[in-house]
User: Which sequence fits this backbone?
């Protein structure tokens, strides 16, 4: 159990270049002390946003902070404690049990009864608490003996028990933007709590730090501290790209996410998938991941490719791509690279067909050319008064009433009768579809069955 000011040293403790002493990690020293110092998360911290209202109103509250690592969950918990002037107690779900929870609650009752001061109980990684451990908090949260601030990287709807969740406000944190990370880095370089101007950072090194961070402020500050320590050890006052690469042992990827390289690499990924070169596709995926590309952008491209380039030749490809997109949103990075890789392998090795894509393009072209016309009377809505008098739905034959579930009947407008938009290939699962489609069209259009 620890308070805000008694935090144990974290991994990565090293020389503080600004102060010339061994101290707490840079990420800890730079932790914001007020809501106004917090970078990012404006959807929670804006003038009328929920967390600001709760903090500035000093109301009894319990919240679950849900988001990827390094987005400020612990920081917000500390800021809540400072802003509300309450006693702050921190537990880690890794080493606290029901006994420790009950001890905190007992102390919180005493503090409330004798000093009139409420307790903020911060539980990090609350998803690691068992159901019994979480249940032990219920009465104290319900009676507002403690204000619970629980942090989790996992979806609280699955990792937090329902009764506790219903007593808490769930606040979802987003990964920091590149500009947010730059703000954090520049503040750390100049702040007297940080490096205090002891070193400077080249533009290339800053961009590398932004890429390495991937929206994680703690990772960015840890890498900056390592680079600053290496520069100072070499007698330098500037952290350049080479020094930083050596210090963090991660080579810079030459990749401008807002320039040509962004589009070139994305294009190469999709074209490698379309060309069934799984190894090249994985190479380009790796470059995007290492460059800190937004994994949601990668996932969106894969979902498009699944329909555009694989289509009905392997209908499960779209399911895999959508599942990968969901997994990335659920897991975050770096774990999200694994379902992305699985989707790339599936798409690249699948049989290919762009027939669904070209079908909708043909249909759209006809619509834009004015080939539309009225809906056939039998297909029009017949569920409102007066529809029968207009002849709507009267001639419609319900296919499920027939043995084969298909009947001769006009479905398109007159101008489009006989128009073939979907032209399946014979590759993969689309082969049997092509054979069946000819028979379906023949029945519906009252045409002779095709041979074979």
Assistant:
């Amino acid at each position: 159990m620890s308070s805000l000011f008694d935090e144990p040293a974290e991994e990565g403790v090293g020389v503080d270049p600004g102060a010339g002493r061994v101290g707490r990690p840079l990420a800890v020293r730079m932790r914001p002390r007020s809501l106004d110092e917090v970078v990012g998360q404006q959807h929670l911290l804006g003038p009328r946003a929920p967390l600001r209202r709760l903090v500035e109103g000093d109301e009894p509250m319990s919240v679950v902070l849900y988001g990827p690592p390094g987005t400020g969950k612990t920081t917000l918990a500390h800021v809540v404690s400072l802003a509300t002037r309450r006693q702050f107690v921190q537990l880690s779900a890794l080493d606290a049990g029901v006994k420790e929870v009950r001890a905190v609650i007992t102390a919180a009752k005493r503090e409330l009864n004798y000093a009139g001061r409420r307790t903020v109980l911060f539980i990090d990684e609350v998803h690691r608490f068992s159901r019994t451990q979480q249940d032990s908090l219920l009465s104290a949260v319900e009676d507002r003996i403690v204000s619970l601030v629980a942090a989790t990287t996992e979806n609280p709807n699955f990792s937090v028990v329902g009764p506790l969740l219903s007593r808490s406000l769930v606040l979802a944190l987003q990964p920091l933007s590149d500009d947010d990370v730059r703000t954090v880095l520049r503040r750390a370089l100049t702040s007297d709590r940080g490096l205090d101007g002891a070193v400077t950072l080249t533009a290339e090194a800053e961009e590398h730090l932004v890429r390495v961070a991937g929206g994680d402020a703690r990772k960015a500050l840890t890498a900056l501290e390592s680079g600053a320590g290496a520069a100072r050890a070499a007698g330098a006052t500037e952290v350049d790209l080479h020094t930083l690469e050596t210090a963090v042992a991660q080579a810079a990827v030459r990749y401008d996410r807002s320039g040509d390289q962004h589009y070139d690499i994305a294009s190469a990924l999709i074209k490698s998938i379309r060309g069934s070169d799984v190894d090249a596709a994985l190479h380009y995926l790796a470059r995007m991941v290492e460059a800190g590309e937004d994994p949601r952008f990668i996932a969106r491209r894969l979902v498009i490719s699944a329909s555009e380039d694989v289509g009905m030749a392997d209908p499960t490809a779209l399911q895999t791509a959508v599942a990968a997109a969901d997994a990335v949103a659920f897991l975050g990075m770096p774990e999200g690279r694994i379902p992305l890789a699985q989707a790339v392998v599936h798409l690249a090795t699948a049989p290919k067909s762009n027939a669904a894509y070209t079908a909708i393009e043909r249909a759209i072209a006809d619509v834009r050319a004015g080939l539309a016309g009225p809906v056939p009377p039998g297909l029009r809505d017949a569920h409102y008064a007066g529809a029968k008098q207009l002849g709507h739905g009267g001639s419609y034959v319900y296919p499920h009433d027939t043995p084969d579930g298909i009947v001769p009947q006009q479905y398109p407008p007159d101008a489009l009768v006989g128009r073939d938009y979907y032209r399946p290939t014979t590759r993969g699962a689309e082969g049997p579809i092509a054979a069946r489609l000819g028979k379906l069209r023949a029945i519906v259009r009252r045409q002779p069955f095709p041979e074979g």
